[in-house]
Hints:
Two copies of one chain form a homodimer.
Chain A: H1 7-18, H2 22-29, H3 34-41, H4 46-55, H5 58-67, H6 70-76, H7 82-89, H8 94-103, H9 106-115, H10 118-128, H11 135-138, E1 145-147, H12 152-162, E2 171-175, E3 181-186, H13 187-192, H14 199-202, E4 211-212, H15 217-226, E5 231-235, E6 241-246, H16 247-265, H17 278-304, H18 307-312, H19 315-318, H20 320-343, H21 352-382, H22 385-415, H23 426-447
Parallel strand pairs in A: 1-2, 4-5
Antiparallel strand pairs in A: 2-3, 5-6
Helix pairs in contact in A: 3-5, 7-9, 8-10, 15-16, 17-23, 20-22, 20-23, 21-22, 22-23
Amino acid sequence: MEFELTKEFRDRFQQALDERDTKFIVETLESVQPADISALLYEFNSEESKYVLDILDKEVQAEIIRDLDSDARKAFLKIYSPTEIATILNLLNSDDAADILHELPVKEREEVLALIETELRIQVVDLLRYEATVAGGLMAKELIKVRQHWTVNQCIDEIRKQAENVDKFYAVYVVDEGDRLVGRVSLKNLVLANANKAVVDIVEDEEIVSVETYLEDTEVADIMQKYDLESIPVVNVNGQLVGRITIDDVVDVIKEQAEEERQIMAGISEDVEEDDSVWINIRARLPWLIIGILGGLMNAKFMGLFEEELVRLTAIAFFIPLIQATGGNVGIQSASIVVQSLANPGFVVESLWPRLVKVFTVAMLNGFFLALIVFGANVLLFTEFELSLTVSLALFSVVLFASFMGTITPMVLNYFGFNPALASGPFITTLNDLLGLTIYFFTVNLLLL
Amino acid sequence: MEFELTKEFRDRFQQALDERDTKFIVETLESVQPADISALLYEFNSEESKYVLDILDKEVQAEIIRDLDSDARKAFLKIYSPTEIATILNLLNSDDAADILHELPVKEREEVLALIETELRIQVVDLLRYEATVAGGLMAKELIKVRQHWTVNQCIDEIRKQAENVDKFYAVYVVDEGDRLVGRVSLKNLVLANANKAVVDIVEDEEIVSVETYLEDTEVADIMQKYDLESIPVVNVNGQLVGRITIDDVVDVIKEQAEEERQIMAGISEDVEEDDSVWINIRARLPWLIIGILGGLMNAKFMGLFEEELVRLTAIAFFIPLIQATGGNVGIQSASIVVQSLANPGFVVESLWPRLVKVFTVAMLNGFFLALIVFGANVLLFTEFELSLTVSLALFSVVLFASFMGTITPMVLNYFGFNPALASGPFITTLNDLLGLTIYFFTVNLLLL
């Protein structure tokens, strides 16, 4: 049922492309879904891809281009003329058309805009002014809008009229004379209702959930998930219905959010994939590595202050990796738990103190346990009682401090409008390395020297 | 429009609860959506929550209990009798009822099963045999099934009959005499079609996308996203239609997957939230901390072998944090890029060599650049030319090795059926710490001593 892209298939297809074997291509792709053809195109160059697409139906072609990922599409459309792009956009929904226009260079965007159908142009121009990360940037203009005094029959007529433009819908939206949203009727209830009934009598959800154009995409995602909605109407500041967002767009938002967070945690500073160029890979990875290096140099300088002590008792140095690794691990654990609870609000936020008390209880117990293991192991491995005691005491303190830092940093970042996930990345590790070393040498100084 | 839970509101509500002020509670909650009432309940204890729910409509009550998170619900339903639980389940869809039954202790599950309505019981019993992580565990039995020779009018009659049971649907599924799935008709096309037309004439998607009961939930999520589906039919091994999965369940799968990955990256070994007990927090966090500690002890033992060298030139120790931190950062970056491309397949997987060549190119350039910075800084800060050169050379090698480890580890884990994300967590850091130290001391031995 699902199409699977194998190396054999790709090679056979490449051969057909080389031989311009149109018949093979048409026959092969007949039973393949457009979304799978999009995936296939990543395997060929732009000219070959265009050759394949030009063989297919215009509608299928448009769908495939819509499904390409943004970077691939940007590169691919370079070999298309404005007229060809306009033909494709005419077959797409307003939100997808606007996304593609956003990706074009300004001059070409203007040329394409001048060439697309008037109705779509009006819709798209309205959408282009929104940033991609707000409700206005996610919404499509295609929806079924009915007046509250209409009958069910009139609604169905309207659906018939709009059916060509709106390919997926789950409800009709009911508006008043001023175009203000007053409710919705699900398609199910429309099917079940008597044809002569007035819409106002079957309208659902007096408390209809809608979002305003300027709402952040992540908040739209939260609302749609919370209320289990497959689509949500978008209103402007006057409460007038201006578009709707469907769940498939929100799924993309959720996935991107998770990916962004993973990159932050891994210390990668821009969107990068394995098949991106060497240069993009380097650019994405160097910044946090350099910050780590600066932290490392500060560590070195700091240890330099204790050179004499280290000469006297070299074994002190043996436990630096242990102390720092544990501090790093504890810090990231703590931060990621806070980041998670910041991402899932909906509870009354407790005041800071009870949270910190709990963090400290956990840290004390974990720290105690780890210190005990290390003490036992050290006495056995190095048979130095005093040093073992010092290391364990320092370790215990480091667990406490790293927990505190890990808990407080994401809250502070969040408070100042930064992404709190930064606190589960190299940032907290670099800080904790320095902190761990300071605590360790302080303890050594106090107990050993 | 959206309800916001404030501290003031909670306190006022608590007061109403203490005074058993039913009137206030009913009036307050009238305009609040069930999903928001669920969130409110986390603020009160089980008895208070039940008191609130018992005031509300049975339907609303069922919806609220459905929306609670699994842990909270498990605790909450402890104060419900089997009869009360059965009443709630009778008002829910089969998939939600099965999820709740799964959470009950076996004895209570049997009691409740005996009390629910026959039709629901048959459906639920069929669902209970699937694990939560496969298509069968995600699906609901409620769907509109029509025969291919029916007319549109007969379909609408069937919808009318089923309307009470199926609260959300977007399409009717068309089956043959053997109950095998042959296609679907979207609700839109049903609305638009002539009432006397045969279903077989308006059936869409000859290539209808469906999934089999045993498919992994993450694969179901991938398919629904790829084809932008709001619902997908589930078939058994004979191709017979047995249920359907809606996009809201898949959104949950996607979120859980992202959360699980974050936990793995942060070295947290079980699902834990900030408001979980101290004990759960410790249990989730200790395992990876202990593994880190063992790595740290191995580091210490290894450095012990070089005690004499360290006594002769203590400054060697200064750069251990720098070497290890960089190795850790590089390793996590590399691993997370591979994890990401493993999570987004759909390309023909290139053979290993070209990938590794690229990884090494990036690593060489990054390593060279970092080594240069460190060399410059060291000459300035420590004015020791030979040591600076040694540190930079070791750093360069560590970047190469850590990149290699970070790239290969997730592939190996994935190959053996483990979650590759493990490679972006404390696992790779612990390994890289040891590796970094070994490379550093090897370089020191070669060049300095």
